[in-house]
Specification:
2 domains; globular; 7-stranded mixed sheet; Aspartate Aminotransferase, domain 2; single chain; Aspartate Aminotransferase, domain 1; alpha/beta
Length: 453
């Protein structure tokens, strides 16, 4: 073990961290972030970084928003917690549900079910899907179609829908009834089709999964509008609309996992709106509070909720989380959403996202950059060993990880993903200067690493 600081030493002694390789931390240490302001954070030594990943895709309004802190403080003084289980409620949870239904009117959402985070929001959606078809008298409809490289959380339902083998293997066998269709990655393609037919070909590949299983057994399709942890995969034009048509044609529900794409990230308030699609169910977390407190939400259309209401005698929805509708978390969300709307942070994501993407595209001058893509303040720089063949580097080389570590030394925090993708999802309050700072650091880092691989 190399020389490590006191914080890393204490962390290694006492804490088992999420998605963390202990030996990696022993080798490279930890960065201890102690405060933040806007799109910048500061470590224990006072060094400044532009956070090009909003910590974990989620600090949409940026750091240091005192109005969120004040809203939580007022609520904690008044009522820190009370259950929303049958027969009881608290007012902030009602206020937030009303706010979200209003925001989601174009998507046709009618009711909101709260949970503690994104994995729980997805788990809620999956349970809703299965009970929905039982209440409709079609219990044989239980299978759920996801995609390769999808990420839907860490609970057993969400993990079963996830299409990332590294996340799944050690926990198998997973739940039955989950199927995976090809990922619509326009660069690292799993479907062979010309560009002008690629979107349709990917959608047809998913439809073939439904047809091969018998549509009468399929309950839902679940997709991230933009696949996040799987590589910031922005679907080709028309793909998600084709999925809506396929879902309707085969009488299955369409679920949009908007844990990352919700609340302005794509340059529109929701990913569904960005791609002009109305799903049946939507899941949220992350940007709903910008991470100031944990909260998840699952929104459903009127048709879905009325199926439960009209058939309640067959069985209530026996699902919930202790902290569902936590009043302090809901107060944080209300203050957070007010900032997003008041400052038009979705509009800023479009404007500054275009500048960031333009800068990132200049990185194609490096031979190891094969592809750059983005929407709003979500972007990907794909590193490859060979541009002509799109061949990837050997995983053990850790090329993207090496770039990310060098970028951090230059004062920018970003996240490497599997298959050597560099991902970017900065706070939506990012400035033009900060976008340029990100590009400059990544440019220099790729240039340095490229000379060693």
């Amino acid at each position: 073990m190399k020389n490590i600081d006191a914080v890393t030493e204490r962390a290694l002694q006492y804490r088992w961290a999420p998605f963390t390789r202990t030996r990696y931390v022993e080798q490279h240490g930890l960065l201890s972030i102690v405060r933040g302001e806007g799109a910048k954070v500061y470590d224990a030594n006072g060094r400044e970084y532009v956070d090009a990943h909003a910590s974990l895709w989620l600090v949409n309004v940026g750091y240091g928003r005192q109005e969120i802190v004040d809203a939580v403080h007022r609520q904690m003084q008044k009522l820190p917690w009370f259950s929303c289980f049958e027969g009881y409620t608290n007012l902030p949870s009602i206020d937030l549900a009303e706010k979200l239904v209003g925001m989601l009117k174009p998507e046709g959402m009618d009711k909101v079910f709260f949970s503690g985070g994104g994995s729980e929001a997805v788990e809620t959606a999956l349970k809703i899907v299965r009970q929905y078809w039982k209440l409709r008298g079609k219990p044989e409809k239980y299978k759920i179609v996801s995609r390769n490289r999808a990420y839907h959380g860490v609970t057993f339902g969400g993990l079963s829908a996830t299409g990332m083998p590294a996340n799944r293997t050690m926990f198998e066998p997973l739940l039955p009834g989950f199927l995976h269709a090809p990922c619509p990655d326009p660069y690292l393609r799993e479907v062979d089709a010309p560009d002008d037919r690629f979107a349709l070909a990917c959608a047809q590949a998913l439809e073939r999964v439904i047809e091969s299983e018998d549509p009468r057994s399929v309950a839902a399709i679940i997709v991230e509008p933009v696949q996040g942890a799987g590589g910031v995969i922005i679907p080709p034009d028309g793909y998600l609309r084709a999925l809506r048509e396929i879902a309707t044609r085969h009488d299955v529900l369409l679920v949009f996992d908007e844990v990352i794409t919700g609340f302005g990230r794509t340059g529109e308030m929701f990913g569904a709106r960005c791609f002009d699609v109305r799903p049946d169910i939507m899941t949220f977390a992350k940007g709903i509070t910008s991470g100031y407190l944990p909260l998840g939400a699952t929104a459903v259309s009127r048709n879905v909720f009325e199926t439960f209401y009209e058939n309640e005698q067959k069985g209530a929805f026996r699902h919930g989380n202790t902290y569902s509708g936590h009043p302090a978390a809901c107060a944080a969300a209300l203050a957070n959403l007010d900032i997003i709307e008041r400052e038009d942070l979705a509009g800023n994501a479009r404007k500054i996202g275009a500048r960031l993407l333009e800068g990132l595209r200049t990185l194609s001058k490096h031979e190891i950059v094969g592809f750059v893509d983005g929407v709003g303040l979500l972007a990907r720089v794909q590193l490859v060993r060979d541009r002509k063949t799109r061949a990837l580097f050997a995983p053990e080389l850790g090329v993207a990880d090496r770039v990310a570590r060098r970028v951090r030394e230059l004062g920018v925090i970003m996240r490497p993903l599997p298959n050597d993708a560099l991902s970017f999802s900065p706070p939506l309050c990012l400035t033009a200067l900060e976008a340029d700072t990100i590009v400059a650091a990544v440019d220099r880092s790729i240039g340095e690493v490229a000379g060693t691989v």
